[in-house]
Design brief:
Number of helices: 3
Number of strands: 45
Number of domains: 1
Radius of gyration: 23 Å
Structural class: mainly beta
Strand order of the largest sheet: 19-25-29-33-37-34-30-26
Distance between the termini: 48 Å
Largest sheet: 8 strands, parallel, barrel
Length: 557
C-alpha cells in the first residue's frame, strides 16, 4: 500500500556542527525498490526479477592487481566519542581465517585475489604489509548465498571501486528467511557505483508521472534475503542511481532481509535518488554508535501512486525520488522487532523531498522505533529537516535535534516549507529528556498522535501537533497554539506553548558539551528548579533527578 503525495498547496507553504509540525495531509510514503523490487510484489513472497540486478557491471578484467598505499584511513577510528550503546553484536573473531589475501606486501593484495576468495565464502583477512593499503576492484564480487562471508580489513584496508562498479552483490531468490551472513568489519569502502540500466525520460505531456532509472541501488552492496552485519566499517563517496522513484542506497541497499545490524560505522558523502547512505525495503534493522554526514537524496518529486501514468517497475506511479538524505526504510519489519537507532550522529545530510536524515514507513500496519541518545544536526529537506516517520510508535530518549531546516534543496536552493525538525506523520511519540535547538521553522511535529513529551528543552524550536507537554522548557520558541500540558516554564512572556506554563528567565547557556553523550542547553538554575513533577530518574546527561520534583527541561542545573 502507498500513501498519497503531499498536496501541492502544502508544498507551497511554508546549520552547522555536531552528531540522532504543523498539521498536514498524508505525506508520501512510497517504497524504494531498486532493481525492480517493490513492496507490492515482495510482500506476497514473489521472488522478483533477480536477473534485473545481475552483476553485469563487469566491464573490465578481474585480474586487475593495482594497489595504492596512500589515502587510506584507519577505519577503526570513527573520530567520535566512545561507544554509547550496547549493540547485539560485536567484532567477529577472525584469528583463524579461511583465506588470507596477500603475502606481506601491498602489491600482493589484489582485487582478483579478493574476488576469488570472497566468491567462495568463509573468513577473509589481509596481509598487505605494515602500512594501510588500497585495493582496486574492477569487477563486482558475487557473494555466495549459502555460505557465510566475513571480510575483515583490520583497519588497514580500503576497497576502491573507482566509481565504475559495485563492490558486492548478494541475491537469494527467497524472502526474509535466509540466515546466510555477510559481515563487513574494520574496512573502508569507497567509489562504489551501482549499475543503473536503462534511463526512462520524463514525459513532457505527463510531467508528474515517474521517470528516471528502474534499477541501480546499492553502490557498495545490493543484498536480497540474507543477514548483514557491518562493524567498524566506513563508506565514503559511493553512489546509487541518482533519479528514479524506487532506487536508492548510495552505499547499502537491502531488500527482504531478516537482519541488518550496523555498529560503530561511518557513512560519508554517499548519494542516490533516495536513501543517500542506506536504502532498506522489508528488513529488521538496528543502527548503533554510527555516523552519517553529507549524504544526499538527489531525486525529485517523491514517489506515489498516480493512476493513469504508465507502469513504472510495478505500478502506475509518479515522482522520481528525493526522500531521505541518510537512511530510508520502507515496508514491514517483523512484528515485535523495534527499529533501534542508538548513539548515532546525523549531520548535514540533505534531501530534495522528504526527510533530511530518516525516512520510515511500514506501508501496512504499524511498527515501533527507538531513537536513543542520538544527535541530529544541520540536516535539511524540502519537508522534514530531520525525518518523515509514518505509522510508527516512536520512542525518543536523550536525543538532541539542532540546526535542522526544511524548505532547502540539496543544492542549497531555498523553497520554503514547514516541518523543520522531527516529523511524525500518522503516528505517536513518547519523548523524554531531549533537546530541540534552533530548528526552523519548527522543532517537533506529531500528526495523528497521541504523543507525550516529558522534560524536553525547546530553544527557537516550536513544537506542534497532537501532543501533550509537561516538565519542559521553552525559550524563544514563538508558539502560535497552546498545546495540552502542565508544569512548564517559558521565556520570554507571550503566547504559551503548552498549558500549565509559567514565565521566567531560565538564564540558559549556549548549546554545547555539558556532560553526557549529546549536546545540551544548561539553565542557570533558580527559575527552572522545582517546576517539574513526577520526573524521570535521570536527566539527558544521565545525571540523577529527584523524581518527585525536578527542573523544567532536559537537564538539571
Amino acid at each position: 500500500m502507498r500513501t498519497q503525495r503531499l498536496p501541492l498547496a502544502l508544498l507551497g507553504i511554508i546549520a552547522l556542527t555536531g552528531a540522532c509540525t504543523g498539521n498536514q495531509d498524508d505525506g508520501n510514503a512510497d517504497e524504494i525498490g531498486s532493481e525492480g523490487e517493490s513492496s507490492d510484489s515482495s510482500s506476497t513472497g514473489e521472488t522478483g526479477d533477480s536477473s534485473s540486478d545481475s552483476s553485469s557491471d563487469t566491464s573490465t578484467d578481474a585480474t586487475d592487481t593495482s594497489t595504492d598505499t596512500t589515502d587510506t584511513a584507519d577505519t577503526t577510528d570513527t573520530g567520535e566519542e566512545p561507544p554509547i550503546c550496547d549493540p547485539p553484536i560485536d567484532l567477529y573473531d577472525t584469528s583463524s581465517p579461511t583465506v588470507v589475501i596477500g603475502s606481506g606486501t601491498a602489491d600482493s593484495c589484489t582485487g582478483a585475489a579478493l574476488k576469488t576468495a570472497a566468491e567462495a565464502g568463509g573468513t577473509i583477512t589481509f596481509d598487505c604489509g605494515p602500512d594501510p593499503v588500497t585495493i582496486t576492484l574492477s569487477e563486482t564480487i558475487e557473494l555466495p548465498i549459502d555460505t557465510d562471508t566475513i571480510i575483515d580489513g583490520e583497519g588497514m584496508v580500503t576497497l576502491d571501486a573507482g566509481g565504475m562498479v559495485r563492490h558486492f552483490h548478494f541475491n537469494h531468490p527467497d524472502w526474509m528467511n535466509n540466515p546466510t551472513k555477510v559481515v563487513l568489519q574494520r574496512i573502508r569502502l569507497i567509489g562504489g557505483m551501482a549499475p543503473v540500466g536503462e534511463y526512462f525520460p520524463q514525459d513532457p505531456n505527463n510531467p508528474d508521472c515517474a521517470y528516471g532509472y528502474k534499477e541501480g541501488s546499492g553502490g557498495v552492496l545490493y543484498m536480497r534475503n540474507g543477514v548483514l552485519h557491518v562493524i567498524e566499517a566506513e563508506f565514503e563517496g559511493n553512489q546509487a542511481a541518482m533519479i528514479g522513484p524506487d532506487v536508492g542506497g548510495g552505499a547499502l541497499y537491502v531488500v527482504g532481509v531478516p537482519e541488518v545490524i550496523i555498529v560503530r560505522s561511518r557513512f560519508i558523502d554517499n548519494h542516490g535518488a533516495n536513501g543517500g547512505a542506506i536504502g532498506m525495503l522489508f528488513a529488521n534493522p538496528q543502527i548503533h554508535d554510527s555516523y552519517f554526514e553529507g549524504n544526499t537524496a538527489e531525486g525529485t518529486g517523491q514517489n506515489y501512486v498516480e493512476p493513469g501514468c504508465p507502469n513504472f517497475n510495478h505500478d502506475e506511479q509518479g515522482g522520481a525520488g528525493g526522500n531521505s538524505g541518510a537512511v530510508y526504510f520502507d515496508g514491514l519489519n517483523d512484528e515485535g522487532w523495534t527499529y533501534v537507532i542508538c548513539g548515532s550522529t546525523f549531520r548535514e545530510n540533505k534531501a530534495n523531498e522528504l526527510a533530511g536524515a530518516l525516512f520510515r514507513t511500514p506501508n501496512v500496519g504499524e511498527r515501533e522505533m527507538l531513537l536513543d541518545r542520538c544527535l541530529f544536526e544541520g540536516n535539511t529537506a524540502r519537508l522534514g529537516g530531520v525525518s518523515f516517520i509514518k505509522d510508527n510508535t516512536v520512542t525518543v530518549r536523550g536525543t538532541t535535534f539542532m540546526f535542522n531546516r526544511s524548505g532547502v534543496l540539496v543544492d542549497g536552493t531555498e523553497v520554503g516549507g514547514p516541518l523543520g525538525g522531527l516529523w511524525i506523520n500518522s503516528g505517536n511519540i513518547d519523548l523524554e529528556n531531549s533537546t530541540f535547538y534552533d530548528n526552523q521553522p519548527s522543532g517537533l511535529d506529531v500528526e495523528g498522535g497521541p504523543g507525550t513529551v516529558v522534560n524536553a528543552t525547546f530553544v527557537a524550536s516550536r513544537p506542534g501537533g497532537d501532543i501533550s507537554i509537561r516538565n519542559s522548557l521553552f525559550v524563544d520558541s514563538n508558539c502560535n497554539n497552546t498545546l495540552p500540558g502542565s508544569d512548564n516554564l517559558q521565556w520570554p512572556d507571550g503566547n504559551a506553548c503548552a498549558m500549565g506554563t509559567s514565565f521566567a528567565d531560565p538564564g540558559i547557556d549556549a548549546i554545547g558539551d555539558h556532560g553526557g553523550p549529546t549536546p545540551t542547553v544548561l539553565p542557570g538554575g533558580g527559575a527552572v528548579e522545582g517546576v517539574g513533577l513526577n520526573c524521570p530518574s535521570e536527566d539527558q546527561r544521565g545525571q540523577p533527578r529527584d523524581m518527585a520534583s525536578c527542573a523544567a527541561g532536559s537537564v538539571e542545573p
